[in-house]
Specification:
- The chain is an alpha+beta fold.
- The protein contains two helices and six strands.
- The longest helix is centred in the C-terminal third of the chain and has 12 residues.
- It starts with a strand and ends in a 17-residue tail after the last strand.
- The mean pLDDT is about 90.
- It comes from Colwellia hornerae.
- It holds the Pfam family P-II.
Length: about 110
């Protein structure tokens, strides 16, 4: 099993969720996060004063899938989240050792 974490632009979330749903992904965790990479930040004007916005709003999507589903998920995320502009985000894939469904006690792939 693998955990896919994707950091994407907030306005792309609905498209990504829909694309993942179309390939059979039914569960995910979504968090509103802030951060920056090469994009750094940007300056904004507020009441005539310019100030630096260091952390940009992003959405973090977490999905645990079987190893066989990883490439389809990654491709769906890339195809729908990509704008071609700086700040499109990143995808991280890590191994998941064990999953337990609290309600039933099911484990691993049965718990996904």
């Amino acid at each position: 099993m693998k955990k896919i974490e994707a950091i994407i632009k907030p306005f792309k979330m609905d498209d990504v969720r829909e694309a993942l749903s179309e390939i059979g992904i039914t569960g995910m965790t979504v968090s509103e996060v802030k951060g920056f990479g090469r994009q750094k930040g940007h300056t904004e004007l507020y009441r005539g004063a310019e100030y630096m916005v260091d952390f940009l709003p992003k959405v973090k999507l977490e999905i645990v899938v079987t190893t066989e589903q990883v490439e389809r998920c990654v491709n769906a995320i890339i195809e729908t989240a990509q704008t071609g502009k700086i700040g499109d985000g990143k995808i991280f894939i890590t191994d998941v050792e064990r999953v337990i469904r609290i309600r039933t006690g099911e484990e691993d792939e049965a718990a996904i």
